[in-house]
């Protein structure tokens, strides 16, 4: 049996609009009433995120001062994973077709995400995605989980998945961040990084994934064509 474990945000869901709306909200909340700020265009903001420019630096580049930048970063952390902002998430182009292709090929499919249960359920219902991921193939955080850092939390999810899932002859992990690559490599699973998410190619290369491809569709095509697929 061949298995594909995929991250959710990035490969399947485009979060760029959510992150940008939160940026706009935090900028507006933090600026003084008469203060002129420099609201970044979405493309420039998202490029900063993909390059891992710190939140404080994004705030400073937007015209806030040092104290405001600190406040902005804190407000952003409190806001980015809350309703109503999840409403701005959209399906990544081609993601559903890629999931259908994997499903039709009979490959075991699991999702592994830093979303909490309620956040994953929301997106599943909105986009009818639970048809691809039965409950015993969903690895996410409990609603009351106290997060540390993704790069530390995600390998713990991977360890749980390896313990619980049936044995597979070959397993691939697809994701868009250093946490995905680290979780895969720590457990000797092949890591495919996708460039359609929140990290650019330069950031992904720092963590030495086995492959870097454009998106989930490209990753699926590669897996299907691989010698591992029998």
What is the rounded Rg?
Answer: 18 Å
Sequence stretches where pLDDT stays below 50 over 5 or more residues: none
**What percent of residues are in strands?**
15-25%
Shape, per Cα inertia axes: elongated
Amino-to-carboxy terminus distance: 9 Å
Number of strands: 8
Question: What is the number of helical segments per DSSP (H or I, 4+ residues)?
Answer: 10
Largest sheet: 6 strands, parallel
Q: What is the helix content?
A: 40-55%
User: Could you give the order of strands across the largest sheet?
Assistant: 5-4-1-6-7-8
What is the overall pLDDT average? 95
What pattern of helices and strands is seen along the backbone?
EEHHHHEHEHEHEHEHEH
Q: Class by helix and strand content? A: alpha/beta
Organism: Nostoc linckia z8
GO cellular component, one term: cytosol
GO molecular function: phosphoglycolate phosphatase activity
Protein name: Haloacid dehalogenase
